[in-house]
Amino acid sequence: MNIQERRLEKGWSQEELSQHSGLSVRTIQRIERGQRPGLESLKCLAAVFETSISTLMQEQNMTNTQPAEQSPMNEFEREAIEYVQNLKAFHMNWIAFLVIIPGLAAFNSIISPDFWWVAIVALGWGLGIILHAITIFGLFGIFGAKWEQQQFRKRMGKYTG
User: Fold this and answer.
1) How many Å separate Cα 23 from the centre of its chain?
2) Range of the domain at 23
């Protein structure tokens, strides 16, 4: 489903999509005619349509009428988008933790004050958040880029030597 189909599915005119997304009507017209949107435009549209940037990029690539060599997204941009999406997921995770755990604690104190099962939930979820932070921010560098390169060289040495 391309941008125009998504817009029409919501019953919006180009002007309404412009108001919701913060993009100009002209930009929306260009995108709907097949011009490749920039990263900032994709971010705005992904937020409005409640989808990911990568989903919109795939849809645009499938419906794009321009030759692929004119507008490929390079690997650096893909990695940056993936990192930002993972970072967003991490922040949503710890924010949800801060909202839900106190509610569960209140519920626990009412239902079964003798057994604080909420501590088990908080501990498990907290460990998940810590592991998520380690993978996103590369803390401790255990499995970082240097390790990946070493493993790649080691593996390639088996096939070439």
Assistant:
1) 21
2) 3-70
